[in-house]
Structures are given as C-alpha cells and as structure tokens.
Amino acid sequence: MVRLTVLTDKEVEAIHQATLRILSEVGIVLTQSEARAILTGAGATVHDDRVLLPPDLVEQEVARCPKQVAIHGRREETILLGDGDLHWHNLGGAPNVYDPRAGRHRRATLQDVRDSARLLDALESVTTITPFFTPHDVPGPLMSLAMYRHSLPCATKPVQGPGVQTAAEVCYAVRMAAVIGPPAKVLSLGISPVSPLTFPDDVAEATIETARQAVPLGPLPCPTAGATAPMSLAGSLAQQNAEVLASAVLAQLVQPGLPIIYCGRLAMMEPRSGLSVWGGVELGLASAATVQIGHRYGLPVNVYGLSTNAHELEIERLRAGAQRRHPRPGWGRRTLWRWRDGGRCDRFLRPDGLRRRDRCQCPLPATRFFGRRGRTGRRDRCGGDGRLAQLFGAAAHGALSAGR
Questions:
Q1: What is the distance between the alpha carbons of residues 251 and 203, in angstroms, rounded to a whole number?
Q2: Could you state, in order of their start, the residue ranges of all structural domains in the chain?
Q3: Do 215 and 185 contact (CB within 8 A), yes or no?
Q4: CA neighbours within 13 Å on the CB side: how many for 276?
Q5: What is the mean pLDDT of residues 95-112?
Q6: How would CATH label the architecture of 9-89+160-325?
Q7: pTM of this prediction?
Q8: Cα–Cα distances in Å, from 268 out to 85, 95, 156, 279?
Q9: Which of 190, 305, 362, 380 is the most buried (most CB within 10 A)?
Q10: What are the tens digits of pLDDT across the range 136-167?
Q11: Buried b (16+ CB within 10 A) or exposed e, 256-284
C-alpha cells in the first residue's frame, strides 16, 4: 500500500513530546468531580479549573490501548481495524441534502437517513456505515440517537454509533445496539471534547459511561486551525493529539484495555467567512499527519480524506480531489502549492529555501490563509498569543521546520 508521509519520524516524536508538555503544563479544562477524582487518584494534579496530566501517566495509560479494534454488524464477518488494511466509511451528520434537479438545498429527514444507510450497505467499497444525515424532523435532543436508530435496521454492515454528548445518550445507544448483538461487539461511540482542551461535565460523564459499558471509544476532537486551534499544522496537530490522549487516559483508568480508535477531524478556517473548510489540500495534509501520529501509538486511526466543498461532480470537485490524490513530488516536505483566485499558484518554500518574493515565511499548510505580502508576522506564524501558542511555537512549530 502506498502511504502519504507528511511528517518524518523525528517530527512525529517532536509532536508527541509537545503533547506531553501541553498535558502536563497547560492541562485540560475539567470540572466534573468524578472524572477529577479518577485522574487525581492516578497521579494528576489540579490547578484552578484545569487538570494537569503527568507524562508518565499519559504514556502508561495509552500503552494499555489494544492495537486492533474488532467491530461487527448483523453479518457474520468481523471488521478488524488496525490490521494494516485501508477501510472506508462515509462522512456523518450532514444537516442538508442538495437536490441537483431542483438546484436547491433542503433539510435532511429521517427518510434520508434510512435511504443513505441502504445505499451505503450496498456499496462494496464501504466497510462501515456512519449515520449520514442529521434529521430535522425530530426534536433536537433526539437527533443523534435517531440517526443511529434509523440506520441500524437498514444495514447489515457495522454501523458506527452516533456522536454522543451525555451519559444518558450512551445508555440509550447501548440498549439499541443490544437488539442486534452484544454492545461491546456491535457498537462504537464517538465523543468530542470541546477544542481547545476543554472537557465539559457531560462529555466527561459520557466518556466514563462508555468505558464502563466496555464499548469501543473514538475520541473525536474537531479543532479548527485559526479558530479553536493554532494556525500552524504542527501546533494544531499537537493540540488535537492532546485532546485524544486525554480522553484515552480517562477511559483507560475506568476500563483498562478499552479499545480506542484514534480519531481526528482537524480542519482549517476560512477567515473571510469563518467557515471550516474541508475541500482544500490542507485537510489531506492534516489527515495524513494524524494517521502518522496515531500509528506512533499503535492505534487504528479514523480520519477524513477525499473531501470537497462542491455540491456536484464539476470542476471544483475535480480540483479539490486532484489536490489530495495527486500531490507533486515532495508534497508536504519541501514545497506547498496554494491556489489563488483566478487559478494561479504561489509556491512557498521551506525556511532553508525562502525567497524575498514569497508572501509568507511559514512553511506549514496554513499559509494559504495568511494575509497579503508583508502582513504576516510572528504572531501568525506561531498560531497566536498565550500559553498554548508559546508552547506550540517552541516545541511543535519548530519540529516541522527542522525536517529536510
């Protein structure tokens, strides 16, 4: 299998070390009493509303995670994540449906959830199914559970559980999964901390309940570079890694040996609109780097890859796909190509090959979002101000600049 390598081994290790510093010096925002007691009982310390995780605790608990995760559907076959093969699933939770015949968007419904599950179940290339749409014909608090409830009877492949936010949702999902088999075998759940490094009470409670139910857990941080994470690729990867590992530590302390799927949804912000952009080359770079970091811990990894902001199979879709499917030689190592308005490209070289005409001296993928010539300063290059930015700038941003 051909692998896209964005980071060198030394850069992966540098991000790991930066992650340990983040968790031990910055910590995570966590106020839920039971979660605090679990972590402090294992050696963590509390500073105001933050819990600081010592490096040895993080490495010890992450080492307990199984290297493979088996998931099952209503078929007899077993899907083994982490076996070295490439598995495919669809995106999940899309709120809208685009009707190409009418040329308009509409809100997704339960029928769309059922229809998409049947379609995905019939596609040979799809390994597992994620509930595709967020239905708007059910009350808001029931959306996530309704996605799972109405996908499950329409598929024989493994249906990955919804993104849950509360312990009550975990319990309801477990009861639904029990209809087709043991929940620990047929269910996996995604739980998202709030970037940056924040674990609200309901998220902590959901993580604890998932571990108690022995259901495979996919920590699912969704940082946005330039908004809820540093602008640099290295800094945002280090933050995302810290959020995943903190979730894994809490889960392992509750249920040692709990299967963990390393998930990452790092995206980039378009400053002009504030939207999270999924159709650019940066997403491919971020996802490939996330896979390398997850594999550093021997964990199966779940990321998004060939994404686009296009609604139809037209030129935007082709361009977005080509940027990630056919990178130029050395992509992610020495040069980065940015599409500007009008289709012209600007080239950004690594620090050892910068030219005066280059618009930005930062070699990381976030350069596409930086300002006009001469308007990019030190603050932009290291991801902003504050403790996180200082740490990322010193430990993580420099890691990518050191590679050759």
A1: 12
A2: 9-89+160-325
A3: no
A4: 12
A5: 90
A6: Alpha-Beta Barrel (3.20)
A7: 0.78
A8: 28, 20, 35, 10
A9: 362
A10: 999 999 999 999 999 999 999 999 887 899 99
A11: eebbbbbbbbbbbbbeeeeebbbbbbbbb
